[in-house]
Amino acid sequence: MSLRDDLRTSIFKMIKNDPLAGFYASREVKDRILTVLVAGRHLLLEGPPGTGKTTLAKVISGLLPEMQVIKGCQFNCSPEKPSCHHCKNLTKIKSEKIKDRFVRIQGSPEILPEDLVGDIDPVNAFKYGIDHPLTYRPGKIQKAHRKILFIDEINRMPEKVQNTFLQVLEEGRTTIAGFDIELEIDTLLIATANPEEYAGTERLSANLLDRFECVKVDYPSIEDEIKILKKYANPPFSIDCDTYNKITNISKNLREGRQFSVRGTISVLEQAAAHAMIHGKTVVDTNDIRVALKNSLKSRYEDEDIDVTIKRVLR
Ligand SMILES: Nc1ncnc2c1ncn2[C@@H]1O[C@H](COP(=O)(O)OP(=O)(O)OP(=O)(O)O)[C@@H](O)[C@H]1O
Ligand SMILES: [Mg+2]
Ligand SMILES: [Zn+2]
């Protein structure tokens, strides 16, 4: 089965519950994401830092079942339908099951096309031949055969590198740097991009955008943010409702002027509880929250008068 079929099957199995459980967003946003996935399209998630984009990509790859691969193949060839030159010529096939169906690329200005499409070791090519496994140095794109390819911050990659994805997106195949070796790649891309107001981002080319479906992920509602805290924060003792409400309301207030990630909310909660704890308490009070905010805002809002901001949000 293709990756898209696998994904579709899992989504329909869980459709009555919530196939995207673990990722919190409005019904409408989840609906749009599922639409893209069931249609088998590539997904671009746009939104501010720390709003669950990576979490979502992992939840999606977690929907995929274990798969059977040819043992030792760097391209995760399927035993039924080998796609690399090496596996196609094997007489005896040993296979194994793998669970992890997630490959990640961190977008940065330094990334090179070879990192994505791989290249060939000329010495080994001469020694063993062009289709020997030791000759290939697969890139992330080949490693993502039959897996989800998660491209974090695609807009931080130089345009030339962004364009490397075009062939995979369009034809489901790739050519290894400069060589006439084509591999079929069965993958689904999930990319993230921060909105343009963030420093160090390149525009995505129209060509690339035309091949993705874009869903905007924004800050969660207060109710959802409380659920996120309950699931992902690790405070040293159990937190009361009132504190959950207070802290999520503070984040909401902070976001009126600037960005404040959900990661930030988690840190405020954990630190407020930690501060209470070192003072022998198991209940968080306003002063604990103030100290936690001071730490969290100091690292995030370099140039601002933090005491004024804290006063504003603790009102
Ligand atoms: N909508 C959400 N659903 C579930 N968890 C979330 C959500 N938003 C944030 N989180 C939690 O906040 C933390 C940061 O989330 P995550 O890393 O997924 O965000 P991101 O959007 O990928 O951030 P960045 O842009 O910085 O890469 C994680 O602990 C995650 O569990
Ligand atoms: Mg992320
Ligand atoms: Zn193979």
Task: Tell me what the structure shows.
The protein is of the alpha/beta class. Helices cover 44% and strands 14% of the residues. A hairpin with a 6-residue loop joins β8 and β9. The radius of gyration is 23 Å and the shape is elongated. Bound molecules: adenosine-5'-triphosphate, magnesium ion and zinc ion. The site of zinc ion has 8 residues, from α4.
Strand order of the largest sheet: 4-7-10-1-11
Helix content: 40-55%
Ligands: adenosine-5'-triphosphate, magnesium ion, zinc ion
Q: Name the helix and strand elements from N-terminus to C-terminus, one letter apiece.
A: HHEHEHEEHEHEHEHHEEEHEHHHHH
- What is the CATH third-level topology name of the largest domain? Rossmann fold
- The gyration radius over C-alpha positions equals 23 Å
What's the CATH H-level superfamily name of the largest domain? Answer: P-loop containing nucleotide triphosphate hydrolases
CATH top level assignment of the largest domain? Alpha Beta
| Strand fraction | 5-15%
In one word, what is the shape? elongated
Structural class, from secondary structure content? Answer: alpha/beta
Helix count, DSSP H or I runs of 4 or more residues: 15
Cα distance spanning the termini: 56 Å
Please tell me the total number of domains. Answer: 2
Mean pLDDT rating: 90
Number of β-strand runs: 11
Q: Biggest β-sheet, characterized? A: 5 strands, parallel
Could you list the spans in which at least 5 consecutive residues all have pLDDT below 50?
none
Second-tier CATH architecture of the largest domain: 3-Layer(aba) Sandwich
